[in-house]
Amino acid sequence: MSAGAAAGRPGAGAAGAAPAPGDPPVVQAVETAVLTVPTEMPEADGTLAWDATTVVVAHVRAGGAQGLGWTYGSPAAAGVIRDHLAGVVTGRSAWDVPAANEAMSRAVRNAARPGIAAHAISAVDIALWDLKARLLGLPLVHLLGTARSEVPVYGSGGFTTYGDRDQERQLRDWTAGSGIPRVKIKIGESWGSEPARDLERVSRARRTIGEGAELYVDANGAYTAKQAVRLARHLDAEGVTWFEEPVSSDHPAGLAQVRAAVLPDVTAGEYGYTLPYFRHLLAAGAVDCLQADVTRCGGITVWLRVAALAEAHGTQVSGHCAPHLHAHAAAAVPNLRHLEWFHDHVRIENLLFSGGLDPSGGAVRPGAGGEPGHGMALRADRAERYRSG
């Protein structure tokens, strides 16, 4: 665990001094933990394979309350929190989360803001919003302002390493078991070198879920633009309505080329670490729905700005992965399409944290129980078994 000292930081009084009556609560400490959870079986998408997932947890304390945030990525994010962020957050008012977010962004200017540093900022920003809501005794969605009571979700997994039975079981668990009417599988196996198997798996998925559910696919940037356009003919025949990252989101022009030629909605944005990245995707006409990941883009502070940017372009936004961290922010924006109920993250979040949401019927209802903050808490006994830093 690690903590930042308050002395000498903006908003701090004398080191160790209690705030005067009526003063805002100030952040007293920022703590981190690194947890690594093995997958149930080997997993892969079109461009990456993995057998474990690392969670970097951030706790922020003030006024007798504790806020919780986390991100998925490199353990190095914990080092960024300790070395670059804790000092600029500690001693600040717990009310002024956007100011803390800006201070964190400035603090990592020379440490490369996109990438691992953005993961670190995201975890702390989420913890700060959770802290503020807990100090006020409010569900986070009520602090942010509710635009909807329910957040639609889609089941996501269908890894390229799955055999037929594993894929069918997972899809049925979502559709028949939980009543989720939209599901997604991975395609683009081995950097797009197995298109015949991709198409067979799409057809099998359609047979499994029937005609009453929406079918999405995610290539994780595995295809070339022309290849994606050719394959989209089959996707259209199977009623696929969501074609995620047919080509890399680093190439907005390629996404726009595919978007102009295919019927399924083309989507991307999960690798956006700064607000200008999303502006570039929108300006290029690259997406029909903009994705953003609250654990990567800079936390809730920036995720809400991304949603507003998308709304200004007449575009919906979808939350990428980390469903329990997205839910409250997702319920606060009017142009939300849905939230990704990602298999790995749902499993990990239900394992390591209490307060999980129920997706039955295809939607979650953040804040419905009245718990302050986002309602999640680290299960310390379980977390200790997976601690890796």
What does the model show?
The protein has two domains: 29-137, 2-Layer Sandwich (Enolase-like, domain 1); 142-378, TIM Barrel. Helix content is 40%, strand content 22%. The protein contains 14 helices and 14 strands. The protein has helices spanning 76-89, 97-107, 113-136, 140-144, 164-177, 189-192, 195-209, 225-237, 252-261, 275-283, 300-312, 323-330, 343-352, 380-386; strands at residues 29-44, 49-62, 65-72, 151-156, 182-186, 214-218, 240-244, 265-268, 289-292, 316-319, 336-342, 353-354, 363-364, 377-378. The strands form three sheets. An eight-stranded parallel β-barrel has the order 4-5-6-7-8-9-10-11, surrounded by eight helices. A three-stranded antiparallel β-sheet has the order 1-2-3. Strands 12-14 form a two-stranded antiparallel ribbon. Helix 11 links the parallel strand 9 and strand 10. The chain starts with 28 loop residues before the first strand and ends with a helix. 53% of the residues are buried. Residues 1-19 have low confidence and may be disordered.
- Strand percentage lies at 15-25%
| Total DSSP E strands | 14
Largest sheet: 8 strands, parallel, barrel
Neighbour order of strands in the largest sheet: 4-5-6-7-8-9-10-11
Which class of secondary structure composition applies to the elements? alpha/beta
Q: How many helical elements?
A: 14
For the residues shown, what is the average pLDDT? 94
> H/E element string?
EEEHHHHEHEHHEHEHEHEHEHEHEEEH
CATH architecture of the largest domain: Alpha-Beta Barrel
CATH homologous superfamily designation of the largest domain: Enolase-like C-terminal domain
Number of domains: 2
General form: globular
Poorly predicted sequence stretches spanning 5 or more consecutive residues: 1-19
CATH class of the largest domain: Alpha Beta
Question: What separation lies between the terminal Cα atoms?
Answer: 8 Å
What is Rg? 21 Å
